[in-house]
Amino acid sequence: MTGAFDDVDPDDVERRAELLPEELHSGSADPEQQAEAILAESEERTEDQSVGIREDNVASESE
User: Fold this and answer.
1) What is the distance between the alpha carbons of residues 51 and 63, in angstroms, rounded to a whole number?
2) How far is CA 22 from the centre of its chain?
3) Cα atoms in the 13 Å half-sphere on the side-chain side of 62
4) Which of 3, 23, 50, 59 is the most buried (most CB within 10 A)?
């Protein structure tokens, strides 16, 4: 994920760093680092639609 963090908007990181209820329950050592990683991964999936798609989750062309 080289450079993936470069595409993440700092304002988005700040908003995402506000922990969700389930994250508050389990805790987070560094909410901003966690938010940056989550958003970078999301950005990567958005740019490369094949990332994270399982074979069994793709409809065949014959359907």
Assistant:
1) 22
2) 16
3) 0
4) 23
Contacting residues for 16 by C-beta, under 8 A, at least 6 apart: 35, 38, 39
Does residue 5 have a pLDDT over 80?
no
**Residue appearing with tokens 């950005």:** 43
Amino acid identity of 35? A
Residue 19 near residue 31, CB atoms below 8 Å: yes
Indicate the DSSP class of residue 28.
-
Domain segments of the chain: what residues? 4-48
Tokens encoding 53: 């798609």
* Residue that has been written with the tokens 């304002």 in this structure: 11
For residue 35, which of 19, 23, 20, 17 has the smallest C-alpha distance?
A: 17
